[in-house]
Design goal:
Chain A: InterPro entries: ABC2_TM, ABC2_TM_bact-type. The complex is a heterodimer of chains A (290) and B (431). Chain A is built from twelve helices and one strand; from the N terminus they run βαααααααααααα. Chain A is mainly alpha-helical. Chain A has one domain. The relative contact order of chain A is 0.14. The longest helix of chain B is centred in the middle third of the chain and has 16 residues. The termini of chain B are far apart. The chains are: A mainly alpha (290), B alpha/beta (431).
Chain lengths: 290, 431
């Protein structure tokens, strides 16, 4: 048989012992397993649409359907104004960040439970799984951009409402709120994964957390519509800043102060750092219990 | 040469009962000190934890305790022990699935465990896609997999179905593909747990051959956990025996096997001559689960010593969990040396489909058949030519005493694995 496989380095050694310390992320090892990351992303993407007729087209349809429902319910029945921005466009913009966030925490928030079978059989850096979720949903995000961009161009250039949309230099900053959502949702899914592995009750709770979170985020209402007494509640939610930032960057509309940005970014980083610690604590012996 | 595996004082403590995954309420109660005294947890087969395995806290026990050994490159090591002796825990620690509680292990090389083949296979993906997925999960680079791809496909004999989702594969094809990926990983250390329990006989042979090749030709180290003494005997150069979480013996396979088999048996049940499972530790697969095995005398009473002229009934009670077709039980009686005395099967009576429910199959061994010695009951369940339902395993042993047997007239051991009642006719011939 031909010896094609790359030989591991001569002094390749794995030391197995009870781990100590709060946080030691095997970055080098995660990098070693980058091919696994790609394969997992591919698996998630392919398996989700196997045997569906529309396939990945669902990514394009989902935000459109949700936004259409919003137009009827929040725009029509509840009559919540959207700061002069066309309603469909306003909702689609809010949903960009929200869909990415909610999909990340739905798919990545039960890492240990969903992969119990796999984790019980084979070793690889467990963090690969939540990371792969963040990456594979990025593809969904990119597809979701398509209907948004079509709508944006349509409203800007083909309707009289075009004047309410301002393209500014901030358009170039749009990747920043996306990065922010990625980091925040990564932290939240780490926390959720760690806590659901220990307490199954929380699986049910998480569904409500996601629902409440949506209402607490300015997705289908502009901040200008929030009463002064309640503004703190919106800013206490670290997701509000990136969602509002998307609107500022893409539509040129929104209100955001420096202190809010700083607090939100700091909260997100803190959540992710503590999430990593929690995830690693659970990871060590989770197989013994799930 | 440095040993490829060095294990020093490895121990693993498990907590019983609500292991870790407790409900929120329990934690809240514990935190606020309202937790009631928990009833002592039950260990396997409803036995209390043996004294020497009890951990520091109530409801905890040592699955592994102070295990030390080292293995040289290229050795094939058989790991023996009863269910719950610590074999699987050892493999789980060595494959880094779980952490030890104390002690350490040093591995010099890449480790691949086949704790169960097909790990991470996704039913919706095709055979081709799953080869890459499975390989990557096992730690292979994409380029490595691509380089071995044709070899893997050829070994697995699934060429035609490469672009079919694996959920449409027969279980035999599934296992072949899974083993093929694993066998081509070329790790320095390969951990195998009962992997050969699946697949048909021909493929099993191929797997054993591959294992041998991996070890001898490529100088890899193989850990092999099995209840199949024949395979351990023929493949391994060394064997390690675990009892109650401790390593009790290392040595050449022959010696370790006879020690294992002499220790195997009735001590695990309250009544000698039967094993009754009522917990989750029963030998099981997705479609069939054993409930009990009994060795009964003519009156239907379980025992372990039989007179040679009296019949013995081997009775197996099992539960069919999912509709199954054409499954058969095979009974092998082995001697302590591991020789097969004879084998028998209920195949003729099991042609029909069995719906979920509880079944009993019984084999009557007539009196005047067995020799004056100890026999080991070896049992397996399979669907001929397709797959194993339950892996082959040794379960009970019994002794045949010489009373009423032709060999009993003589004090010395009577040769032969069996001693059937034959008729003699002695006459004087007229010359």
């Amino acid at each position: 048989m031909a010896e094609i496989a790359a030989k591991p380095p001569q002094n390749f050694e794995i030391l197995i012992q009870p781990s100590r310390g709060w946080l030691n992320i095997p970055w080098a090892e995660i990098w070693e397993y980058r091919d696994l990351l790609l394969v997992l992303v591919q698996r998630d993407f392919i398996s989700r649409y196997k045997q569906t007729i529309l396939g990945p087209l669902w990514h394009l349809l989902q935000p459109v359907i949700t936004a259409a429902v919003f137009v009827v319910v929040f725009g029509g029945i509840a009559g919540i104004p959207t700061d002069g921005i066309p309603k469909l466009l306003f909702y689609l913009c809010g949903l960009l960040g929200w869909s990415y966030f909610s999909q990340n925490i739905t798919n990545g928030g039960a890492t240990f439970i969903n992969n119990a079978h796999l984790f019980g059989k084979v070793y690889f850096p467990r963090l690969i799984v939540p990371i792969s979720v963040i990456v594979s949903n990025l593809i969904a995000f990119a597809l979701q951009l398509i209907p948004f961009v079509i709508c944006l161009i349509f409203y800007k250039f083909f309707t009289h409402q075009g004047g309410s949309i301002a393209f500014t230099w901030r358009l170039l900053l749009a990747p920043l709120p996306l990065l922010h959502v990625a980091v925040l949702s990564f932290g939240v899914s780490l926390w959720m994964s760690a806590s659901t592995a220990k307490y199954r009750d929380l699986i049910h709770l998480n569904q409500y957390i996601i629902q409440i979170w949506m209402f607490a985020t300015p997705i289908f209402y502009p901040l200008s519509q929030v009463s002064k007494k309640l503004t703190w509640a919106i800013w206490a939610n670290p997701l509000s800043v990136p969602i509002e930032s998307f609107r500022i960057c893409l539509l040129g509309h929104g209100t955001l102060g420096a202190s809010e940005i700083v607090i939100s970014v700091a909260t997100s980083i803190l959540l992710t750092a503590t999430g990593l610690i929690a995830f690693q604590r659970v990871e060590r012996t989770v197989v013994d219990s799930v | 040469m440095k040993p490829v595996v060095e294990v020093e004082n490895l121990s693993k403590l498990y907590r019983l009962g609500a292991i870790g995954a407790s409900s929120l309420r329990e934690t809240v109660e514990r935190v606020f000190g309202k937790k009631k005294q928990v009833a002592p947890a039950q260990f396997t087969k409803d036995k209390p934890i043996a004294d020497d395995r009890r951990g520091p806290e109530p409801n905890s026990f040592w699955a592994l305790k102070d295990v030390s050994f080292s293995i040289q490159p290229g050795e094939v090591v058989g790991i023996l022990g009863r269910n719950g002796a610590g074999k699987s825990t050892l493999l789980k620690i060595l494959s880094r699935i779980t952490e030890p509680t104390s002690g350490r292990a040093t591995l010099r090389g890449r480790v691949v465990s086949l704790l169960e083949v097909g790990t991470g296979f996704h039913p919706e993906l095709t055979g081709r896609e799953n080869i890459f997925l499975n390989g990557a999960i096992m730690g292979m680079k994409r380029t490595e997999i691509a380089a071995k791809f044709d070899e893997i496909v050829e070994f697995a004999e699934v060429g035609k179905f490469l672009d079919t989702p694996v959920k449409r594969y027969s279980s035999g094809m599934y296992v072949r593909l899974a083993f093929a990926v694993a066998a081509h990983l070329e790790p320095e250390i390969l951990l195998i747990d009962e992997v050969l329990a699946v697949g048909d006989a021909g493929f099993q042979k191929k797997c054993l051959g591959k294992m041998d090749e991996v070890a001898t030709k490529h100088g890899r180290t193989v850990f092999f956990v099995s209840h199949n003494m024949g395979a351990v005997r023929s493949l391994c150069e060394h064997a390690i025996l675990f009892e109650g979480g401790r390593l009790v013996m290392t040595g050449n396979p022959g010696d370790v096997i006879s020690r294992y088999l002499s220790a195997t048996s009735p001590q695990d049940s309250d009544v000698e001559g039967q094993i009754i499972w009522n917990g989750k530790d029963a030998p099981t697969s997705h479609d069939l689960k054993l409930r009990s095995i009994r060795l009964l005398n003519g009156l239907g009473v379980p025992q372990t010593t039989f007179e040679s002229d009296k019949p013995i009934t081997v009775e197996v009670e099992y539960e069919v969990l999912e509709r199954i077709r054409g499954a058969r039980f095979c009974l092998l009686l082995l001697t302590q040396e591991g020789e097969v005395a004879f084998s028998a099967t209920d195949h003729m009576f099991q042609q029909e489909t069995q719906n979920p429910g509880v079944y009993k199959t019984a084999c009557l061994l007539p009196g005047g058949l067995l020799n004056r010695r100890q026999y080991i009951v070896h049992l397996q369940c399979d669907i001929p030519g397709e797959r194993y339902v339950l892996p082959a395993a040794e379960y009970l042993s019994f002794t045949v005493s010489g009373i009423g047997n032709q060999s009993s007239t003589f004090p010395e051991p009577w040769p032969g694995v069996v001693c059937p009642r034959v008729s003699w006719k002695v006459e004087e011939l007229k010359s």
